[in-house]
Structures are given as structure tokens and as C-alpha cells.
Write a structure and sequence with these properties.
Helix content is 23%, strand content 24%. With 404 residues, the protein is α/β, with parallel strands linked by helices. Helix 5 crosses helix 7 (190-201). The two termini are 33 Å apart.
């Protein structure tokens, strides 16, 4: 696969047929591990609601019949794929004790195809429509019924009714609301981006991004707006696994995306091919494995291999501990814009007049200091600082700011 092919995939919005052809060859027949303790079966969307089309791809369900850790792994596949394409990682997670839903959903439009859009909110609209069914995007047409969220809720309700002794309802707060605290959400390619998008608005158990997120704007030469927006799920719960030789969206652009998200350089990158778990506790992992039957380097993070098995186990089972540099600000403060390229505005319910603020870099060095001259509002100028992550402390509160 040459450079011209990569550019066509990234820049041409009509990538549907190409991506579907890629994933029709995305096979994992080389898997040899025995998953004797899991039960794998399929559920058609129309079984969960008669309003779904009868010809839609089936959802893949995996359940461990011996050990269950009472966590759901909600896996979301890439562009043009079907759930069979990801049976290996689904079985693998099931073997670790997860309940697994490998979801069927509308996935014909690649996220990378939006890279040339002049609409700065194009990726936001795309993610919102596919994930929740809000009619915002000109690139996709997904109603609420066919959104990822609704499909997941309806499937869990079906499983709860059909298999009442298996406790599927533990992943629902009520009949229409997911309990994200018990759900590890992950995905490959555009699916990894969807997983990350859900984590922006919900406190998920963890979020796993394989060869993603791919929401890089070639038009604006930056990561997507939604990636740079503060989210609910802590960075310590985010894991990205990339291939240095990715043809769909280059590694440098993916690195820009996870920097916009905030997990890099909060966590340094780790080359997994020459290291072993726990990979220096990194959440930014990369490989240069050849794709083999997976056809593309972009797909190699999903192939069956000893390296991937170790990485998958680490991502799915490692303890979530807050990075010492990741400190959440009190809810009484409002900071914007963040990331910034110059001025940070800070609002507070408290009187900050005369309070001293300190700005430190990742090395703990103080790079700025000053005092607030207003009661509830002040500004800090970051324009002379190098791009990177900084921590602002004021009146016993510390928060992270990204300069880019």
C-alpha cells in the first residue's frame, strides 16, 4: 500500500467502498488460543427492536462461563467492518472475565475522510450523530434508533430479558440509561474515536483506542475540536495503541490527536515491541508489527500475536491509578480556552482578589507567577511559553492547562 493510497484514504470523503474492501480482508483466522471457558453467540439488531432492518450485521456477544469480573467490554469496530472481523479481541476479553458486546452499527463513513473539511466542528458533528443520533452532520445520516448508544441499550435490555440469570442489567441504571462506571469502552480506527467520544461525556471504567483517534484536520493542521475539549473521564483511564507505520492517518497526526486529548505527553510513548508489561505504566503505546493477514499496518494493533496479547491484557486489566501530574480542578472554577495558544481565562465563585497564582511545567519548575487583580475573574498569558502541559495553582486548587 503506497503513499498515494494513504492520501486518498485520508482526503477523499468517498472512502466507503475502499474501507469496506479493506475490512472484508481483515481476518483473524490465525488465532490459536483456546477459549474453552467462553460462550460466543450473535444477536441480530432486529431481535432487539423490530424497527431495525433485518439485513443488518449481527452483534457479537461473548460471556465467560467460568469467571466473571462484572465488567462489560463494549467494542466498536472500524469503517466498513463487521463484528466477525474482531472476534479475536472479543474472545480475548471474554477469556479475561469480561462480558463483551462487539456492536453492529452504521460505520460506512471513515472519520479520516473529514480531514479536508473547512468546518471546524465537522468531527464533533460526525461523532455526535453516530454515537447519539443527533442530526448534525452532513457526512452521515444516523437517527437515534441506529445510534451506538441506543443500539447498546436495546441490546442489553434484550440480553437481560433473554438471559435473566446472567445479570446483564447490571450495566443499566434503568431501561434507557447505561451504567458507564462498569463499562470499558474501546474500538478500532473510527470505533476507537467513538469510544473516546463517549468518555468525554461519561465517566467510563476505561477507554481503549486501537489505531485511533483519527480525527486530524488537514485543513486546520490540528486535532479535532472535540478532542481538545475537557471531558469527564480521567486521562488515567485512557489508553492508546498505535502503529508507527500507520497508512490511514500517520503516526505524527495520531500523536497530535492524543496530545490534544491530553494523554500525551502526560504519559510518555512506549515502544511495546522491545518492552514488556506494564510498559513503564504508559498509556501511549506503539508498535511496528507487520500487518500479516490484517493487510494494513493500521489493522496490526488488532491482529493475533504474542505482542498484542500482552498489550491487550495490560490495557484491559491494569489498575487505574491517577498520574501524579493529573490533578482535577474544583468544580467552582471555570477555565477556558483549554488547550490555549495564548490567554487562559479563569472564573471562580470565590473572591480571588490578591491571590497568588503559580504556573509550573512538567518538571515542577515555576515558569510564571503573579496575583489576581479581580474578585472572580483573571487571565494568565501563556503566549511566551513553549507548547506543552502546565499546572496552575491558586488558593489550594491545581489544574492542568495545555499550551499548543
Amino acid at each position: 500500500i503506497g503513499t498515494q493510497f494513504s492520501q486518498n484514504i485520508m482526503c477523499n470523503p468517498k472512502t466507503t467502498t475502499t474501507m469496506r474492501n479493506i475490512f472484508s480482508l481483515f481476518l483473524f483466522a490465525t488465532a490459536t488460543t483456546c477459549f474453552a471457558q467462553i460462550n460466543t453467540f450473535f444477536v441480530k439488531p432486529i431481535q432487539t427492536d423490530i424497527n431495525y432492518s433485518a439485513v443488518q450485521d449481527s452483534n457479537l456477544i461473548v460471556r465467560n462461563t467460568t469467571t466473571n469480573i462484572n465488567k462489560l467490554f463494549l467494542f466498536i469496530g472500524g469503517t466498513g467492518s463487521n463484528t466477525n472481523s474482531y472476534q479475536t479481541i472479543s474472545n480475548f476479553a471474554g477469556n479475561l472475565g469480561y462480558d463483551v458486546i462487539n456492536l453492529s452499527y452504521p460505520n460506512t463513513v471513515a472519520a479520516a475522510s473529514l480531514g479536508s473539511s473547512s468546518d471546524s466542528m465537522a468531527f464533533n458533528k460526525y461523532r455526535q450523530e453516530v454515537c447519539y443520533g443527533t442530526p448534525l452532520s452532513v457526512e452521515v445520516t444516523v437517527d437515534t434508533l441506529n445510534s451506538i448508544y441506543t443500539r447498546t441499550v436495546k441490546l442489553l435490555n434484550y440480553l437481560n430479558i433473554t438471559y435473566p440469570t446472567q445479570n446483564w442489567n447490571q450495566y443499566l441504571i434503568n431501561a434507557t440509561t447505561l451504567d458507564w462506571s462498569k463499562i470499558a469502552v474501546g474500538g478500532h480506527s473510527q470505533g476507537g474515536g467513538h469510544a473516546c467520544y463517549f468518555a468525554k461525556f461519561n465517566d467510563v471504567e476505561r477507554v481503549l483506542m486501537f489505531s485511533s483517534p483519527n480525527d486530524y484536520s488537514n485543513f486546520f493542521s490540528s486535532s479535532a475540536n472535540w478532542l481538545r475539549t475537557s471531558g469527564i473521564t480521567a486521562m488515567s483511564k485512557h489508553f492508546a495503541y498505535l502503529n508507527l507505520l500507520d497508512e490511514i492517518v500517520t503516526f505524527n497526526k495520531q500523536l497530535t490527536n492524543i496530545q490534544g486529548l491530553g494523554i500525551y505527553p502526560l504519559y510518555d510513548t512506549t515502544y511495546v515491541d522491545i518492552s514488556s508489561s506494564p510498559y513503564s505504566n504508559s498509556h501511549c503505546l506503539y508498535t511496528t508489527q507487520t500487518p500479516g493477514l490484517a493487510i494494513l499496518y493500521h489493522n496490526s494493533t488488532m491482529k493475533f500475536s504474542s505482542i498484542n496479547n500482552s498489550v491487550w491484557t495490560y490495557m484491559l486489566t491494569s489498575n487505574i491509578t491517577t498520574n501524579i501530574n493529573e490533578i482535577k480542578i474544583s468544580s467552582e472554577f471555570s477555565i477556558y480556552p483549554n488547550p490555549t495558544n495564548s490567554i487562559i481565562n479563569i472564573n471562580s465563585e470565590y473572591n480571588l482578589l490578591g491571590k497568588t497564582y503559580i504556573v509550573q511545567n512538567l518538571a515542577g519548575q515555576t515558569v510564571l507567577t503573579g496575583k489576581s487583580s479581580n474578585n472572580n475573574f483573571f487571565r494568565i498569558d501563556f503566549s511566551l511559553l513553549e507548547n506543552g502541559i502546565y499546572f496552575v495553582s491558586i488558593d489550594k486548587n491545581t489544574f492542568k492547562v495545555i499550551k499548543q
